[in-house]
Amino acid sequence: MNLKSPHLLQLEGVPAEDINLILDTAVTLKEILDRPIKKVPTLRHITVLNLFFEPSTRTKISFELAEKRLSADSVSFAKATSAVVKGETLLDTIWNIEAMKIDMIVIRHSVSGTPHFVARNCDSNVINAGDGTHEHPSQGLLDMFTMREKYGKIKDLRVVIVGDVKHSRVARSNIWGLKTLGTSVAVCGPSTLLPFEVEQMGIDVYTKIEEALEGADVVNVLRLQKERQSAGLLPSLREYSNNFCITKERLKYLNKNYTVMHPGPMNRGTEISSEVADGPDSVILPQVTNGVAVRMAVLYLLSGGVGKIE
Amino acid sequence: MSDFIISNGTIVDPVDGYFGPGAIVVKKGKIAEVIKSKSMPKGDIDASGLLVCPGLVDIHVHFREPGFEYKETIESGAKAAAAGGFTSVACMPNTDPPLDNQETIKFVVEKAQKAVVNVYPIGCLTKGQKGQELAEIADMQQAGAVAFTDDGHGVQNGMIMRRAMEYCKMLDAIPISHCEFNDLADSGVANESYVTAKLGLKGNSRIAEELMIAREIMLAEITGAKVHIAHVSTAGGAELIKNAKKKKLPVTAETCPHYFTLDDGMLESYDTNFKVNPPLRTQKDVNAIKKAIAAGIFDCIVTDHAPHAYDEKQLEFDYAPSGIIGLETSVGLVSTQLVHEDVIDWPTAIKLLSYNPAQILNLPAGTLAVDAYADITLIDPDLEWTVTNDDFRSLSKNSPYIGMNLIGRPVKTFVAGKLVFDLKA
After folding, report:
1. Among the CATH numbers 3.40.50.920, 1.20.1250.20, 3.40.50.1370, 3.40.50.150, which is that of A137-284?
2. B200 close to A (CB below 8 A)
3. Coil, strand or helix at A284
4. Which of A89, A90, A95, A117 to mutate to test the interface with B (most CBs of B within 10 A)?
5. Model ipTM value
6. Which end of chain A is more exposed for a tag (fewer CB within 10 A), N or C?
7. What is the spatial distance between Cα B172 and Cα B256, in angstroms, rounded to a whole number?
8. Ranges of H-type helices in B247-303
9. CATH top class, domain A16-136+288-302
10. pLDDT confidence of B241, banded at 50, 70, 90?
11. Which of these, B170, B152, B150, lies nearest to B160 by C-alpha position?
12. What is the pTM of this model?
């Protein structure tokens, strides 16, 4: 079995078979993470370049670990130490590294569409590790994997995404991936942090948190960047928190067997209370574990899905 | 060859609306006689199956000289103009240094003397295009500047714009307004719409453009001063122009081929050749612009020919400059999307591409009148062709139309009786 596209650039437009194939493969690969020797030789013929043009801790480490668990050779790149600061263009950087014979590029960049631009102009398989305010497909996949792990299937769930949807690549990847699998999706946030014409995405849109949470199974809480206040999008973080913070009290609107998710890093007390984040129904840390498994699956399948997983 | 006759073609005269058989007699680089009937002398140039039009006029091009000669020079831009059927163009002042004084205007006028088509400089409205102090408009006018604008930037301060319009009125000069309020544009890189919501691109709202169009119209009303509105891209903008004309205000307006041929859905590939300012709007806007052209709301169609080197466009979407080249595809797009689609007929199309823009800037062009310079363009209205990278005479190739099939293309261009472009050559 193979994926339709040689790249993972976004979840919008990825067919359900491919999403399910990635999630199913991740189930098999996750088991490796619990072995005493957490490593298989599957991708030892593959060299991966991790290009992170934006600071990242968890996603970068998650990809690097996924690569190591599969025995891929990997090199990582940080903007501050590269020729980019000397004025080299992105494509020159990539073409030079490609000339050293690599197979895959994992890229994070602050400008939306950059992975698409790179994919069009190089020979490697490209994995989007977050582009601007567009998508973060591996995060969307790990969120879906985590939901599926808990509920068995995710088709009949109701998922509500809360917070700064406008600037969130996590939100967009969740919306498209979940919709493709037939999940009912809603978003909720202050109107200044919702994308223009967001309702055209075919989702329910709320600005009152209680209404949004009513009858939902999963609440996926987005990170609120403090700069949104100085940019004039919010009067104050305090007011945001009063109206949108996921607190224990607000959880009562959710369905009984509810789940709380957060892609991290969290601002405790702003978008999520510590009590909820650390509570029994939070899957925030399992999300991180699953991230490695899902990224292993993506790397494995994009490499052609050959080589045995043992 | 300064004396010759073009015959057997279809004469398109935008002044009297004649669209029929005829011949043009050229003597000493000027039009000596226009015969508008079936009986005509034998010609030196057989224009069978071709439209014989006044040389086309584009009052909105960027030739990048001085300062950005690697993108385009006056010489290369003029060759691209000739290949697109244009015999007179007016070039924008956002060069380096900007054309904001007599010396820089003189520089362009001098360079223009060696160009294959007529190139007229447009001066800045404010010093350095900073929108703060009026530029020396009278000085520049004396040196040959044909209009004044801060194109590339909207004039943010309404009082400066009002003074600029009043000052231009005194000089019988024409100010051109690039309408865009920076605060509402919010550094957006694409039209604010569902598309930007989906693609995660920063949206540039239509009201950033429309609100400034509305301001310029109100300023024209209160001052009685003329203003020309550059590159109108939205349905709402067209509506504002329509209402201004209904009130008979001294407002003229232009739109560009990309605003009636492309919508923001094209950005899904994040291809920077579709990045332009004002941004490509929605399909609804595209339809509205076409409708407005059909209704005669726009005075002219310009290209906003904005060359950029390929390596400048080969960047992350936000970092790539805005702009697309248009001189060599304009006639093909007007022909394919407006004439062949029955939006307008050829006489109207040619009027929008020659006589009207020449009138706005008071240029000696856009006419087949006897004694006028023999600026003549021959167009094959049914020639099918594909836009290719190698075809462009422009130094830059940043066209979103590469690979597109078009019907209709200029085949010969004469400036003052001199053949400056021949497709077959």
Report:
1. 3.40.50.1370
2. yes
3. helix
4. A117
5. 0.92
6. C
7. 26
8. 257-261, 283-294
9. alpha beta
10. very high
11. B150
12. 0.95
